[in-house]
Amino acid sequence: MQTADYSDFKQSVLDQAASLRSRIRSGEHTGTTSGAAHSLIQGNVVILPADWAADFLMYCQNNPVALPLIGVSEPGDPALPELGRDLDIRTDIPEYQVFRDGARAETVTDIRELWQGDFVTFVLGCSFSFEDALTRAGLTVRNVEQGSNVSMYRSSIATRPAGRFHGNMVVSMRPFNGADAIRAIQVTTRLPKAHGAPVHIGDPSQIGIADLAKPDFGDPVTIREGELPLFWACGVTPQLALENARPPIAITHVPGKMLLTERLNEELAVL
Amino acid sequence: MQTADYSDFKQSVLDQAASLRSRIRSGEHTGTTSGAAHSLIQGNVVILPADWAADFLMYCQNNPVALPLIGVSEPGDPALPELGRDLDIRTDIPEYQVFRDGARAETVTDIRELWQGDFVTFVLGCSFSFEDALTRAGLTVRNVEQGSNVSMYRSSIATRPAGRFHGNMVVSMRPFNGADAIRAIQVTTRLPKAHGAPVHIGDPSQIGIADLAKPDFGDPVTIREGELPLFWACGVTPQLALENARPPIAITHVPGKMLLTERLNEELAVL
Asked: Residues of the signal sequence (chains A, B) (predicted)?
């Protein structure tokens, strides 16, 4: 690909994202961002008061596979210049989940009314980036094929605590046959900032999952004859840690309704 | 590691190999080379008359995972300068398998009497190189742990034919738990010239293997609760193709009794 063609490509992706972001910002688009502007990094979001930020930053540092940090704001600043020129975290997520004292409270489509001068925003890489990479590698991602949300489970894998934050890892599951499973491990290894390689393959009971047909979050997907389940660390993990840490207020995205950045997935690749 | 230390390391490995090679050359050592001078590349060997060499070279080209070519001799020349200064293919393998018209005939510990002026030697990378890499990565290789030969099976995976050479792939199997299986795929991906990543993981019947406890070559190994079998392409594959192609004479190593080269496994790594 020529440099000029590539610039054109990136610009067309950015234009597409800008259009969707504007509809998210106006409250017109409140649904999932799955499959939208799929060349761009999408992010899991956790917003916390500044006096909870140091613990959470250390929690990310201690758990880089489940919480791959790709952006942090200045306290009180709704911008994220590392991730895009035109981002406002108060309006640019389709739907927000508010946590009060660790419990899921209201969901809203705009947090301008809730914004505090001490809020710090953390953005974590998301499996949508590696689903894009898997698709480009010629693999079929079952939840994309079925048009459903990915299956997510509370695992028995403990995260490494930091201050008040602790809890088990949430994992997402995608089934593949043997040869495709090997390829999927190779492809996702390249993307450590999007959870990287799977954390488990095969028998779900080894990581405390009793029934694949009953995910704790998202939708069940079909597992076909000869396929193995592959489990990746999931960006819903910090939501369990929020339940345990019980900050007076915290705000996240609603699973599947992510922050659309202005950076390309390929910029996350290490190999 | 300092450059000087590394030179010392390589020299000590080469000295160790030279000592073993001299005992192989004299006929004193006729056993396996498993675990010997384990930092050095060991090779699968196929020796053919020159009028069979072009077909076999194309067979390697068509099947780089099962037949990763790392050295080819000049016709009639028993040296392999690419792989070591001090190699003589007529004496430097512990035990040779002679094929006559495609059938396994005698085994010998020296082929000086059988040598022909038109013989071409092909050396293929070997799983011993990746077993070394797996061990360095902190994984336990079951056949090494049990002190047995690796389990090998005739699979239903067809190789891509070339001229008179065709047949199914032989695969070697090593069991790992989920997390180690993922790590093993990453580690062996770095070594395409030692068969690279596995070709299959999980259900053996998917690649035509009925019973893991009954390998076609080598020894059975224990598979523990929660472990998955991983299958790698194996350097015994060309021996099946020799059975099908039926050259009047061909000579290979006896499985597990390999050619010890003077190059380090790490020199094969692509990442």
From this structure: none
Is A270 an 8 Å CB contact of chain B?
Answer: no
Cβ density class B237-252: b for 16+ within 10 Å, e for less: bbbbbbeebebebbbb
Report the top-level CATH class of B3-125+243-268. alpha beta
Tell me which fold the domain A3-125+245-266 belongs to.
Answer: PSTPO5379-like (3.40.1640)
Q: What is the pLDDT along chain B (271 residues), one digit of tens a residue?
A: 455 677 888 888 888 889 999 999 999 999 988 878 778 999 999 999 999 999 999 999 999 999 999 999 999 999 999 999 889 999 999 999 999 999 999 999 999 999 999 999 999 999 999 999 999 999 999 999 998 889 999 999 999 999 999 999 999 999 999 999 999 999 999 999 999 999 999 999 999 999 999 999 989 999 999 999 999 999 999 999 999 999 999 999 998 899 999 999 988 888 7
ipTM: 0.85
Fold of A128-237: PSTPO5379-like fold (3.30.2040)
- For testing the chain B interface, which of A201, A228, A270 should be mutated: the one with the most B CBs within 10 Å? A201
Task: Tell if the CB–CB gap between A226 and B206 is shorter than 8 Å.
Answer: yes
Find where tokens 């499985």 sit: B255
Every domain of chain B and the residues it spans: 3-125+243-268, 128-237
Q: Is B199 on the interface with A (CB under 8 A)?
A: yes
Asked if B155 and B171 count as a contact pair (C-beta separation under 8 A), the reply is yes
Instruction: Enumerate the β-bridge partners of residue B72.
Output: B122
CA gap B178, B184 in Å, rounded: 10
